[in-house]
Amino acid sequence: MILKTRHRLDTIEDVEEFYAAIKREHLTRSLSEDRPYTYWTIELYDQANGIRGGGGLGILAADTRRVAEQMNVPLTLVTPFYPSELHQKFENGRSFDVSKPVLYEDFGFELIDTVNIKCNKDLVELSVVEKEFGSTRILAITEPNFGELYSGDSCGDHRLYQEVALGFGGYQALKLVGLKPAIMQLNEVATFFAALARLDELASNGMDFYEAVVYTRKHTLYTNHTLVQAAEASFSYDQFERYVFPNLRSKAVKKWLSDKFENGRIRLSSVTIEIAELRSGVSKLHARVANYHDLSGEKVKFKAVTNGVDIPYWVLPNIVKYYKTAGILDKFCLPTEDYEEKVELIEASTVRDLKAQGRAFMNQVLARRPDQNGEILNFGPDEIVFDFKRRFVDYKRPWLPFTDTVKLKRILQNHNAHYILTGRVHQGDTRMMARLNEVLDKIKGDDYLSTHVHYIADYDEELARALSVGSNVSINIPIVGLEACGTSWEKDVGNMCLLVSTHDGGVADAASDSYLNVSGSNEADEIESLYERMEEAASAWENDFDLEFWQKRQLSRYLPTVSGTRMLRDYLDYLF
Which of 240, 318, 337, 516 could anchor a disulfide with 244, C-beta 3.0 to 4.6 Å? Predict the structure, then answer.
């Protein structure tokens, strides 16, 4: 806990007093405006500021900055500003990607100056752009040829260039604006080069090399966000000679880094673990099962800091207002001391009224987002809507409800329900693109499903929020053991959706009876369980007693988990 009981958040008048209380506990002894918490991410998903990410990592980064601003914590988020972004188009029954240019000037970023890095024998000039928000800021590096997020192969030259530019360029950018990191949080291994740049600066400016290593390690947190190592990368010695070593001034650092290669290649996860003494996973389950080893072969321990979401941003304002008026959440959107007692007073009529308001908002967004048939969707407040709104990747299994279309159709017919499917395929993932098209063909081939299952293209932040506030039932069915946390389900719980899920990621922070649990000893059993749970969820919306039971169960078990304020508080406690 950041604050002792005498500093309960709900007894503090404003965020300034809250922040002062943290200082009184000596937990921010080195945190100040010119020594901020620096948060490094290769991906930011913040559409209001013109930066489009690829999924949960970017959404989480945006939430973290917003929560820090609300808490008056000095935080600088360092990220690339990609000059182009991918959008999904849907024509003639098929999905494909198109690129769209983006200008930082259009979103209020100001050019500060330029910095230089050395890559492939060339001096590359990077623009440093900035936007401030209260105690926080986004500090971004960019240049016209930087490309799109995750462009190219994960072990290719261009990806390495992007990561080197973020690390070395971003570290120079901090110095350019007069900031020295109190802590460096490295989100995934793509940000390793930021800590390497700091180590190199210390070692090349006269600090004993081993002291520099100790200092860097003690001030660096590596946060692993995924058990499916899409973010894992390895590079050759030749690549490092062209992109990394030219940016190092210290011979000792070059030698230290060179010694980390095995058979001519280096894995970024291995060296990131070596350069960060602090390590965190993003759910209790993730921290427990993450299987990483240091270079000596010892298994690495991770601290569990479960992801949270910015509740005021993602949850319908009137639902947030209800939680606060009812005494369920305090002014910082943390559960009150007696929140469980207050949750027990929730009535089905209140839930239905609030969800009807969310449905109206969802319809406004869907009016601009036609489905695969070109139809504009508009759902009445009493119609039941299921949704799947996650990245279209293998382990999340978006196709699972379409395994037996007869059973799926029966559930929809029994409850006059609709199913919304949305999610983007990773660039270059031809296998998953083919699988998406297979699902679309199944939908198209059935007269009923074609009018009751709706695929919405170009999944983004706007659509994610609209479906959370307006849908009745959210489907979250990753293969157990492969989801690190996930945050879509947290937004759903906050917005009073019923959660149908496997027991994985952050969902597993609470017992499996906290939601409508999908289980089984094999995938065939899980599919049967999924249909049973979907039927049960739809029926609950038609029965006040069952609706109240599941709403109370979900909220009482998960409100302490979903809060982004709780997440940042836990990080501050761990770091300071």
Answer: 240
